[in-house]
Amino acid sequence: MYAYGRNVLKEILNAKYSIKKVYFTNSKNIDSELKKLIKKVSELGISHIFLDNEKLEELVETTKHQGVIIDIGREFNYADLNVLNSVDHEPLIVILDQISDPHNFGAVIRSAVASGVDAIIIPKNNSVEVTSTVIKVSAGQIFKLPIIKVTNLSRTIDELKKKNIWVYSADMKGTPYYELDMTYGTCIVMGNEGKGVRENVKKHSDGIVSIPMNNNVDSLNVSVSCGIILFEAKKQRDIRSK
Amino acid sequence: MYAYGRNVLKEILNAKYSIKKVYFTNSKNIDSELKKLIKKVSELGISHIFLDNEKLEELVETTKHQGVIIDIGREFNYADLNVLNSVDHEPLIVILDQISDPHNFGAVIRSAVASGVDAIIIPKNNSVEVTSTVIKVSAGQIFKLPIIKVTNLSRTIDELKKKNIWVYSADMKGTPYYELDMTYGTCIVMGNEGKGVRENVKKHSDGIVSIPMNNNVDSLNVSVSCGIILFEAKKQRDIRSK
């Protein structure tokens, strides 16, 4: 699959994620940022070729490639639940229950990395996957964070609970997010853009977390809600560790 | 201009915003929600006609109209700064300095209404305007909130400061958002998706507000950042008024 964009390439290189090939623009007028990237890829001995901008556009079906496309192999490298065994602090985890919009997924990843989340879990079915768009919208931050794909979310939640992780589903009429103590092992479940968290997933959770709202608004954009809750968790953890 | 979607029509009706005409689908298989909306529009004596789904799609260039398109007249009804004179509490205001993405603008509007913001201010030039997409992404919440368009943001900031409103630009290396007292009259300036808040706009502000981040992330999606800061303000105000 292809990833694209300059910051994305930088993050892939930083993460030492495996690269099959890089496609750069063959345009003569390139700036110093792009020159540096070409030099670095060259020095690292990574296979790369130069193509017309039109060819680049065809590869990723967008004009937003910034002269850089990265072939990262057949599929994105998903992690499994065992990665949590190496976490040496109280884990902070996000479950996305059937999110459908790649922009929301990408924005959640960016917020998750910035707030110290240890992993994002998505279900195998009826969920957006990691695509070129998701990677771009995450600003390449996805390469800093394990993305775990599971068959059965309810079973996964039970496993998390066994690891002493408290699982809260985001919905209306629950505990205000700032009244939860999220310095303990915490997992936040965010639901689909239209339907919210599924009933049986909610049933398996330890509780419901809510964002109190004015003016009869009943929901926010899912990436916004997720960011508000995660940064409350980060704040609590920063203050606790001072 | 056209707005579309069922929740959008509901919010327009609730807000008693002026409607020129409503276009409904002429499909025979319509559900009870749509039937209710047609009945309500009819009872209110609002001009409406029925069209093929293809015609509806042509009007708004999207398939997401849900069988409902609303003609709200030539231009969106922007407010001016005087609307702030009728605010009877410490104002909470958002300035969007040259935001370019309609999805971000729509998501900010939704968060702003839900967090009790009194007005959003945008500059006349180099800014996304209110479009059909913005209205849809706001889930129709835009009709609950004055959107003010101004010629010169720096001058507007000076006027806000004269009204005892504290103006903070969002950027790196400023005061953590949760250390600001936002129970006073507060205005948060959010910058363009790529470039952030312009230098001269920052210079006119009272200070810089930041979201501390882990893992060398230097920014979040602008609607997420804005949501995090606004809901901190709402929390402070809710706690203060208890």
Keywords:
six-stranded parallel sheet, 60s Ribosomal Protein L30, Chain: A, homodimer, 242 residues, elongated, four-stranded mixed sheet, 2 domains, Alpha/beta knot, 10 strands, alpha/beta, 8 helices
Q: Topology, pairings included?
A:
The structure is a homodimer of 242-residue chains.
Chain A: E1 2-4, H1 6-14, E2 21-25, H2 32-43, E3 48-51, H3 53-60, E4 68-71, E5 92-97, H4 102-114, E6 119-123, H5 132-137, E7 147-150, H6 153-162, E8 166-176, E9 186-191, H7 199-204, E10 207-210, H8 222-240
Parallel strand pairs in A: 2-3, 5-6, 5-9, 6-7, 8-9, 8-10
Antiparallel strand pairs in A: 1-4, 2-4
Protein name (chains A, B): 23S rRNA (Guanosine(2251)-2'-O)-methyltransferase RlmB
Pfam families (chains A, B): SpoU_methylase, SpoU_sub_bind
Domain RNA 2-O ribose methyltransferase substrate binding (chains A, B): 2-78
